[in-house]
């Protein structure tokens, strides 16, 4: 099953058919449920058939968005290059091999951007990139029940200058996007599942790359378990799982760039840069 948040309400896609769920049913109820998939199947019987999706929103309501870092070897290498260029140490290398993962707060709902809308780059940064990430939907009980696509916008020069600047490099208005839909499934994506990104400028591809879910170093359930240690999420949360796609050092986003991130079976998340 795949769930979409639209301007008209929540729409479920099941057996290649679309259904508008009752207006009283919310994503907060889904994330707070003991068995989200079962609850969604119950709501499916009450859905009203619709011919097409309306305007898409980000698939969240009250959920915080968190992120894991340095979960791919490529990300570990890029972060080390950033910090060493600024005279930093080898802490990214150490966290890659450590038992405890890097977890950080990414966004509240009002900072999130919907599919098709504009993400932002900081005015005080000169080196900005998107980070395409498999993003886990985690219930209030700490159980992964689905996944979507996340775009973790990052200011690499600010993060590389000093690790204490990470919140400023990562957390600001328009710093992340989610969507287009939320896949609700008891099974996580297979290791062979592809994650692809391309960036278009004036209609031409200026960067493209891909990786697979299997390149993530840490087991996905362990990331969720670490996040829920000493933390409560009454309405559940989303967890971005890191990126294995890093544009070359000479690349930075520009206004008007189009970012396309694809993960099957979620679809393609497209955003332009404001």
Description:
The protein is α+β, with helices and mostly antiparallel strands and 274 residues long. It has 2 domains: 2-50, no CATH class; 64-273, Fumarylacetoacetate hydrolase, domain 2 (Alpha-Beta Complex). The chain is built from 7 helices and 18 strands. The chain is globular, with a radius of gyration of 18 Å.
Short structural summary:
20% of the residues lie in helices and 35% in strands.
The CATH class of the largest domain: Alpha Beta
Order of helices and strands: EEEHHEEHHEEEEEEEHHEEEHEEE
**Multimeric state:** single chain
User: What percentage of residues falls in helices of 4 or more residues?
Assistant: 10-25%
* Radius of gyration, in angstroms, nearest whole number: 18 Å
Biggest sheet layout: 11 strands, mixed
CATH superfamily of the largest domain: Fumarylacetoacetase-like, C-terminal domain
Under CATH, the topology of the largest domain is which? Fumarylacetoacetate hydrolase, domain 2
Alpha-carbon distance between the two ends: 32 Å
Query: What is the strand tally?
Result: 18
Shape: globular
Under the CATH scheme, the architecture of the largest domain is Alpha-Beta Complex
